[in-house]
């Protein structure tokens, strides 16, 4: 048993259960100093957006409470990770640092350099896998290269050794006699103030307890029907675990095993894995199209169209409902994400990076790998991408997946009194019907900013020109 403490560096693993770095540190018998570093200085990283910072604040507050119940104190520090850890090691006389791995390019580069520097000083530097079921480079094609298509990737994952069962949270964490000073969480000013746009985020409960409750509710109420109901935004048929998974408040292994009764749910976890593997092998994924010929795509950048899309003022109710749900709650239903994303890049011909940037700032589950891979998929320029001729019809999509208009009426209340028959294309309603519903197109609700048929023809021509030039 060592009297020198170990630093356990929390990152995207803000939980106690199934946390291998924390478990390994406790098993040494040494006192443990839990640390979280707000590092906005490492080169190459995407700094957290506003919605993510809101979630981080509440998640760290929850983690601090959970640690305190087990005898440990969470130390908060801000700055470049390597510098902060060096200072903490000097202050605590720590014998090493344990952490769970991150797979974003900047984190991989940073952690490699950090591990080498620590070991050069004779300090322990151990890292573990806590955020993926299957780590990059452990699942490769028959040619020994990373997969670029999801289905064979996931088949290979399922054919591999089953992931181990999650380990329980420790009951007690040995702490040093004295703890180093910590920043005050409020001093980091992660929460919005003027204005406080996060009022609608109250639907979420960040933290490990909230994640566990969300999983149990999903398994008990929605898992059986997940395959059929996951595309219905008017029904709570999805898990809504994505922000909890991104911040590591729950492990993907626990979700994988808990969701064993639904192969479709497990495959959605698989898309998260696939995205992480893509980013690991293609570090420029968030900035550059995987299909390099898309550098010549004839995008039509239009600030007015982009702003209308961001504000949920496109005149297409299902698109506007999704964008308003995003702004109000920090989250958007997955089916509607696809519809809204397709509308931006295909109907409006706006660059996919513009949508990626907006989602990064406004989603509580903003994840670098999943965000980039999904936007490239919709745009047709990524791995396993949607065919260029697949252009979602927002009118038909709304009618199919929100058949009673419940979702649209919730987030586009100015259309609430419109008969369902006309709800998905209000401009087709007779004047008398619009008047009775209190709808004045162009005033109380916008007219469509583009005509669907014309936009589809324009998009197909743009993709065809790219295909012809290839």
Record the strand order, biggest sheet: 3-2-1-4-5
Number of strands: 5
What is the count of DSSP helices, taking H or I runs of 4+ residues?
Answer: 20
Question: So what's the overall shape?
Answer: globular
Strand content: 5-15%
CATH fold name of the largest domain: DNA Cyclobutane Dipyrimidine Photolyase, subunit A, domain 3
CATH class call of the largest domain = Mainly Alpha
What are the defining features of this structure?
single chain; 470 residues; mainly alpha; Rossmann fold; Serine Threonine Protein Phosphatase 5, Tetratricopeptide repeat; DNA Cyclobutane Dipyrimidine Photolyase, subunit A, domain 3; five-stranded parallel β-sheet; 5 strands; globular
Structural description of this entry:
The protein has 470 residues and is mainly alpha-helical. It has 3 domains: 6-130, HUPs (Rossmann fold), CATH 3.40.50; 132-162 and 208-281, Serine Threonine Protein Phosphatase 5, Tetratricopeptide repeat (Alpha Horseshoe), CATH 1.25.40.80; 292-469, DNA Cyclobutane Dipyrimidine Photolyase, subunit A, domain 3, CATH 1.10.579.10. It has 20 helices and 5 strands. It has a 5-stranded parallel β-sheet, with helices on both faces. β4, α4 and β5 form a beta-alpha-beta unit. The radius of gyration is 24 Å and the shape is globular. The N and C termini lie far apart (64 Å).
Structure at a glance:
The protein is mostly helical and 470 residues long. It has helices at 20-27, 50-69, 81-92, 105-120, 150-159, 208-221, 226-229, 242-246, 252-258, 263-281, 303-311, 317-329, 334-347, 352-362, 368-379, 394-401, 406-411, 420-423, 431-437, 452-469; strands at 6-10, 32-38, 75-78, 96-100, 124-128.
């Amino acid at each position: 048993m060592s009297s020198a403490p170990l630093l356990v560096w929390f990152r995207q693993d803000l939980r106690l259960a199934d946390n291998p770095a924390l478990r390994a540190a406790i098993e040494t018998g040494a006192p443990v100093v839990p640390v979280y570093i707000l590092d906005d200085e490492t080169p190459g990283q995407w700094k957290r957006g506003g919605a993510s910072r809101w979630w981080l604040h509440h998640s760290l507050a929850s983690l601090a409470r959970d640690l305190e119940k087990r005898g440990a104190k969470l130390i908060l520090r801000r700055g470049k990770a390597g510098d902060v850890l060096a200072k903490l090691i000097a202050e605590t006389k720590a014998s090493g640092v344990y952490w769970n791995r991150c797979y974003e390019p900047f984190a991989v580069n940073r952690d490699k350099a950090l591990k080498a520097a620590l070991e050069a000083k004779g300090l322990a530097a151990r890292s573990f896998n806590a955020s993926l079921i299957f780590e990059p480079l452990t699942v490769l094609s028959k040619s020994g290269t990373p997969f670029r298509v999801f289905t064979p990737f996931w088949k290979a994952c399922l054919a591999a050794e089953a992931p181990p069962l999650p380990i329980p949270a420790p009951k007690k964490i040995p702490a040093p006699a004295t703890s180093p000073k910590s920043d005050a969480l409020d001093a980091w000013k992660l929460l919005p103030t003027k204005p406080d746009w996060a009022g609608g985020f109250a639907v979420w409960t960040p933290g490990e307890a909230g994640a566990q409750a969300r999983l149990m509710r999903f398994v008990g109420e929605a898992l059986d029907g997940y395959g059929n109901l996951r595309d219905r935004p008017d029904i709570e048929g999805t898990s809504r675990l994505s922000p909890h998974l991104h911040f590591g408040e729950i492990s993907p292994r626990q979700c994988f095993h808990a969701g064993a009764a639904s192969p479709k749910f497990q495959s959605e976890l698989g898309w998260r894995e696939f995205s992480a593997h893509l980013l690991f092998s293609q570090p420029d994924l968030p900035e550059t199209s995987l299909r390099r010929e898309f550098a010549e795509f004839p995008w039509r950048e239009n600030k007015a169209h982009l702003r209308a899309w961001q504000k949920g003022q496109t005149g297409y109710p299902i698109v506007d409902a999704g964008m308003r749900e995003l702004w109000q709650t920090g989250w958007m239903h997955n089916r509607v994400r696809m519809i809204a994303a397709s509308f931006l890049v295909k109907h409006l011909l706006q660059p996919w990076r513009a949508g990626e940037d907006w989602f990064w700032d406004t989603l509580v589950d903003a994840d670098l790998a999943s965000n980039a891979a999904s936007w490239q998929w919709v745009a047709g320029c990524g791995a396993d991408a949607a065919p260029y001729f697949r252009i979602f019809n927002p009118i038909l999509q709304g009618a199919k997946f929100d058949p009673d208009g419940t979702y649209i009426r919730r987030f586009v209340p100015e259309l609430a009194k419109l008969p369902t028959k006309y709800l998905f294309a209000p401009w087709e309603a007779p004047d008398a019907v619009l008047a009775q519903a209190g709808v004045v197109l162009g005033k109380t609700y916008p007219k469509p900013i583009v005509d669907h048929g014309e936009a589809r023809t324009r998009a197909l021509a743009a993709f065809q020109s790219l295909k012809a030039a290839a």
